[in-house]
Specification:
Immunoglobulin-like, four-stranded antiparallel sheet, 4Fe4S_Fe_S_CS, iron-sulfur, 16 helices
Amino acid sequence: MPLAQRQEPRTPTAAVPAPTARAPKKFGVAATRSAIPVEDGSLYAARTKIQPQLVRGTFRRIKWMLLAVALGVYYLVPFLRGHRGEGEPSQAVLLDLDRGRFYLFSIELWPQDVTYVMGLLILAALILFLMNAVAGRIWCGYLCPQTVWTDLFLAVERMIEGDRRERLKLDAAPWSAKKIALRSTKHAIWLLIAWWTGGAWVLYFADAPTLVGQLATFQAPPVAAAAILTLTAATYLLAGHMREQVCTYMCPWPRIQAALTDEHAYNILYRDERGEPRVSAKKTDLLRAAGQPAGDCIDCFACVTACPAGIDIRNGLQMDCIQCGLCIDACDGVMDRLGRPTGLIGYDTAANRRSRAAGQGPVSRIVRPRTILYGVLVAGVGGFMLYSLATRSFTGLSVLHDRNPQFVTLSDGAVRNGFTLRIANKRPEARAFALAVEGVPGARVEVVGGRPDALPVPADATQEFRVLVVAPPGLEPPTLPVTFRITDGADGHAAANDHFKAR
């Protein structure tokens, strides 16, 4: 996608001074990381810590609301309860590794249901592709966990150390008792948030109230403590210290999404045809009165200081941009104070920019082959998964034929094959199944230690049975397909196929 190009101003008249190029200001932003040789001869400048300015506006409010919802869901869901039956866990969302079960409210998944997990991953990828085709990295700017926790850590930092100007002064100030107290308080709260973040994740793998009590009394299992410490360290480092570096260098999505977007995808862009050339607010009226070009951008750098990635959106679309919209709020606030129209920076498309440059009307193609394809795939995969969940069986059956020997010839000439049947009862109550064998004429069925008409399986468990199938002499052909079918007299039924060896 082409980057925004600055327009060169026409030569002004002698009566009105022309807007002059300004030297780049040092705002502690990522502009100092550009791939331009610096004074010491190295290719890249050292990273400068980014201290974003707090802004107010529509997109900032949206981010606050989504942050509250996302954190509320993450921290509170493990404590939701629900009754599943006697002996069943009451936690609404639980990944029970000991029992090999995943509980999601009324849905219970077994290890054999791993296809549903694969389906969810495919569905998530398709939804991400659709979001990217409509509005670029909107996921990164509003819903990505890295963005959510970075916003939370920044809010704590502002609450303790002040906004951008105060934090820059504190960074430059020598160490003192006040600075040590502020920094210690900030990092202590960061560690507390990171600890509870890691703890909340572990609560999805065990009964939440029980584990919280064990943690409070220092009786938690070692594996839980190790997981919490690992996740605490990761959250503290990623959200507190690495921040935009995770999005720029560690996350592969900025590089992948470039291949999935097109000129009709909405991204945050600077309207250079309106903003250039940049001049101060005081000179704008003089230049325009003299018939000279003067853009609406006053080069105040409000968009740069508000950006959590520290980029200058006026230089065009960049890989570092997470499309969070904070630069829009910052610029709109400046335009409101100057009495100028808002929207100098906003969500726009490359096709729209070209259309305006050609003097044509706006172009908007949210519905196009790319988005239709993704939408159809999302609906198809989601619909198939819902149908599969609604119609899935709570009874499972698998059959394993004896390998050695594959068959035994009895004294009367009859042929016997041995099988191992594994029956899965996915319901919270014990059930008894009746077994029938089809495909072998005249065969009789024997269950070692039991009866074919009553195979008991405990609740929410699997049970193995040793089954012998005996066929009369002279069976033809030498190999026959055989079907094992089980029923419980209600709605439980399952079947499995194998082969019967006669010789």
